[in-house]
Design brief:
Shape: globular
Number of strands: 18
Number of helices: 5
Strand order of the largest sheet: 2-4-5-6-7-8-9-10-11-12-13-14-15-16-17-18
Strand content: over 45%
Helix content: under 10%
Largest sheet: 16 strands, antiparallel, barrel
Length: about 350
């Protein structure tokens, strides 16, 4: 397996559309189509996750050259669950729009876009979002303030700091309020008030990257009425370190959040300390073992005091037939106390999968 393919395979899980197929490129307009078919099965004593988990994911990325220095772009991505019966409610069945945004990019000033996109904190969280199946990150989740994917986000990014410093990247993001309404129905734990945040990263010449991000958001009245958590704002800061050279990938992040980390439907932790560490190696024959450690400890919970709300080791092995096809197994060694008072799942899980991606 040549060095170029090794790099593609190591980064395919870290970038949306990394293996996209170009379907149109004419008159300064380009459209790439990407997706994957994932045949997956979970084995666990936890009946909520045991069984079939097959899904299909499709998306496109397009751009148009407006002038010598200005480019327009857009992206859309959708998830189709294949493990449910035909018919029924799309959202309940897991079918959902993951991404949908459009923007403009200037050669020097950077890019600005608006829509459903990743939160600014994911700039750090992405470096440990690498396990092939069990990537249950401690402080990143969809529609959770400015961490994972979410709507109503205005994002500005500038790489190489206006062309002055190679490898120095800055970003700023604003998110408008998303609360339950007729046009935008959502539960309290999927809502947010106005928020903003910033990220900064530096890619050194030695294959090491240093990252940091911070965000703050208003909380809603409905969120403060839940059993757990009470505060005007949800805050988080995160920092990370990554080493990515040829076949070796090492990354670690540390984050601290306040009134932000959800605990099921009970509400939010007043404060959490979050640690994530991953190590991965891709052999020339196509095998890629990975080990990861994820822990989130909640502080001063109203019901139980300090308690782990996520704590597990992850062990996986992937075999890449080529850049489009892979087979894998992943084992989640859960370290959550079986007698916890919050109903957090404590069962181990095994996942088996076969993925075709393009």
């Amino acid at each position: 397996m040549n060095k170029k393919l090794v790099i593609v395979l190591m980064t395919a899980g870290l970038a949306q559309g990394a293996l996209a197929a170009e379907v149109y490129n004419k008159d300064a307009n380009k459209l790439d189509f990407y997706g994957k078919a994932v045949a997956r099965h979970y084995i666990s004593d936890n009946t909520a996750v045991d069984g079939d988990a097959t899904y299909i994911r499709l998306g496109f990325k397009g751009q148009t050259q407006i002038s010598d220095v200005l480019t327009g772009f857009g992206q859309w991505e959708y998830n189709f669950q294949a493990n449910h019966s035909e018919g029924g409610n799309d959202a309940q069945n897991g079918n959902k729009t993951r991404l949908g945004f459009a923007g403009l990019k200037h050669a020097t000033l950077g890019s600005i876009d608006y829509g459903r996109n990743y939160g600014i904190i994911y700039d750090v969280g992405a470096i440990t979002d690498t396990p092939v199946i069990f990537d249950d990150e401690t402080y990143i989740s969809a529609d959770n303030f400015m961490t994972g994917r979410g709507g109503g986000r205005l994002t500005w990014r500038n790489n190489d700091f206006f062309g002055l410093v190679d490898g120095l990247n800055v970003a700023a993001q604003y998110q408008g309020a998303n609360s339950n309404s007729t046009n935008n129905p959502r539960s309290a734990t999927r809502a947010n008030g106005d928020g903003y945040g910033f990220s900064l990263s530096y890619d050194t010449p030695w294959d090491v990257s240093i990252l940091g991000a911070w965000a703050t958001s208003k909380r809603t009245t409905a969120q403060n009425a839940l059993l757990l958590g009470d505060g005007d704002r949800a805050d988080i800061w995160a920092t990370g370190l990554k080493y990515d050279h040829d076949s070796v990938y090492l990354a670690a992040t540390w984050a601290q959040s306040q009134n932000m980390t959800p605990i099921g439907s009970l509400g939010y932790a007043n404060k959490t300390d979050n640690l994530e560490v991953v190590a991965k190696y891709l052999f020339q024959n196509g095998f890629a073992p990975e080990v990861g450690y994820f822990k989130s400890k909640a502080k001063d919970l109203q019901l139980t005091g300090d308690q782990d709300i996520m704590h597990y080791w992850d062990f996986s092995l992937v075999y890449y037939f080529n850049k489009n096809m892979s087979v894998y197994a992943d084992y989640k060694l859960n370290r959550i106390d079986k007698d916890n008072n919050l109903g957090i799942a404590s069962d181990d899980q095994t996942g088996l999968g076969l993925t075709y991606q393009f």
